[in-house]
Amino acid sequence: MPVQLVRKTLVTLILLAALLQTGFAQLCSGSLGDPVAWITFGAGSSAPPPLPAYSTTYKYVNSSCPNDGEYTLKDLSFGCFNSTWHTLAGDHTPNDGIGKYMLVNASNDPGDFFVDTVTGLCGNTSYELSAWIVNMLKPDACNANGIDPNLTFRVETTTGTVLVKYDSGDIPETEGPQWRQFGTFFRTPAGATTVVIRITNNSRGGCGNDIALDDITFRPCGPTINAMLATNGQNNINVCVGSEIPYLLSSTVSGGFTNPALQWQISLDNGFAWADIPGATGPTYLRQPTGEGNYQYRLVIAEGANIGLVNCRIASKPVIVNVNPPPFVQATNYVFSCYGSTVVLFAAGGSKYEWTGPNGFRTNEQQPKISNVQFTDAGLYKVKVTTAAGCFNFDSTDLQVYPAATAVTNPDVSICEGESVQLTASGGTKYKWEPGASLSSDVVPNPIARPKDSTRYVVIVVNEYNCFDTASVAVNVWRRPSANAGPDKKMLIGRPIQLTGTAGGTAVTFNWTPLQYISQPNSIRPAVNPPADQRYRLEVNSTVGCGSASDEVLVKVFEKIVVPNTFTPNGDGYNDRWEIELLDIFTEAVIEVYNTSGQRVYRSIGYNKAWDGTQNGKPLPTGTYYYVINLKVNADPLVGYVTIWR
Question: Which of 59, 329, 456, 579 is the most buried (most CB within 10 A)?
Answer without folding.
Answer: 329
